[in-house]
Design a protein that fits this description.
Number of helices: 2
Order of helices and strands: HH
Number of domains: 1
Helix content: over 70%
Shape: elongated
Largest sheet: none
Radius of gyration: 15 Å
Distance between the termini: 18 Å
Number of strands: 0
């Protein structure tokens, strides 16, 4: 569940930058959104590998 909390925290931390980028067209916020989404992708991949390892042990 720790990993799930990490995903939620990351998404919530990006909320302000999403609003700034889409609503106020702040380009710097867009850069932060892209960086955050890359982190989310990497975290998701780590979780997929972890789940597969646990599943294979059972």
């Amino acid at each position: 569940m720790k990993r799930f909390e990490e995903v939620k925290d990351l998404i919530l931390s990006l909320e302000g930058d999403f609003e700034k980028f889409y609503d106020k067209e702040n380009q710097a916020a867009g850069t932060r959104v892209r960086k955050g989404m890359q982190e989310l992708k990497n975290l998701a991949q780590e979780i997929r590998i972890e789940v597969q390892e646990i599943k294979n042990k059972a």
